[in-house]
Amino acid sequence: MNKIKKITAGCLALSMIFALSACNSDKENNTTEEITTTAKTEWTGDNIEVTADDGVLDQSADISGKVLKWMGIYDINPTNSSPERSAELALFEDTYGASIEWMVTNSAQMYDDLAVSITGGTPPDIFTYDWIAVPNCVTKGMYQPIDSLIDWTDPMWAEVKDLADKFIWEGEHYVAPLGYAFNDNQILMYNKTLVETEGFNDPYELYLEDKWDWDAFTGMMKEFVETNPDNYGIGGWWANAVVFTTGETIVTYDGEKFHNNIYSGAIERAQDVITDLFKNDIIKRGWIDPSQAFTSNDLLFYGMGTWAYNAASESMPSDTIQIVPFPKAPNTDKFYISNKMHSYMWVKGSENGDVVKAWLDCSRLVNSDSKYTSVAKEKFLENSKGWTSEMYDTVMEFYNPDKFIQSNDYGYSLSTFMCNEVMPVLYAGIVDERFENWVQAREEFSTIVESEIEVYN
After folding, report:
1. Which of 419, 420, 414 is nearest to 140 (CA)?
2. pLDDT digits (tens, 9 = 90+) for 32-44
3. Degrees (nearest 5) of the Cα angle 410, 426, 21?
């Protein structure tokens, strides 16, 4: 096939404690942000009162003057490039009188730095959540359970307890779900003007009418390529999302044991759809910069994280770049997607539990209370000129549990080998020309998956 270009699939490998490496989403900062912490500024929330006097936050602990140590690739405090305090920081500082100290690291050495701090007896209190946190990092002695910090009967925590339960290890919770990382949502984009010109039904309208499924999706792409052999149906980061629409994942977890689900019939059907697209020369291969995804009018759908939408939209100022979720699989009544969760891990060795609890409560409140989320939307739109209110709301609808079910493939969390070398190949191996079909892929990797699972079972 003359369109095919080899690409490297996989997670970004990060160095990690005990010679392990962690697994990241498709887009991460590669170096520490070259900025300095500035003096505190007020959080302007359009008349939003940043206070906890209504009793929502537990203020029984006296942590005034205490410092929360955060190790990460960015500063939570105000910076030269972002001089305004976040809502959660304002709540944390003004309600509790505590502060945050940034322990500087970068994505290339963050886990090495964490290892050194833990073994040296000077650990941070919190560290970013990533796919590999539970069980891999937990069993390597990096994090401690949070059940002593979180009141799961509190309404703001009770509504995410089911999600937290998915990350129980040996009977204890390790992850406090705060929300989802907005910029890491996996979305499907298209040029609405191009769709109208081609005479297709608008995918977003089909979604609203509950008619957006695999058949509508693939049929549209095939017709687009048939009319012009130089066209492509889809490009970007998308193969894993198509598999997720089945509601099945390659590795599952029942709270006690992991299971090899590689022989799932639903996964095979999804991989057959990908194989069919590949064989019909519908896939645009290789890296596609979001600012160039639609400028040639030769690409119908572009799959990527939400971080890419701004550039894609601004590149076509006269057109509308629309967002739609990946289509439903046959015989499913809801949409199944996999979004990166936003949370902080409580680091092993930290004795600052009362301060960590206060920070988690503030962060959860800001991600759940409408008086904060509505202002967060306004601020996001002010700083992201390519976005519209409608597009933002479309992505936020992905968090509606009545319509969308979040999938999590535990294969990414078993080991860095699984995260970086096995799972990416299984999900995108057909697109990357590693395999001819799914049967070949699963036969080659089933024993490997099984052996990785048995380490824990």
Report:
1. 414
2. 444 445 545 555 5
3. 55
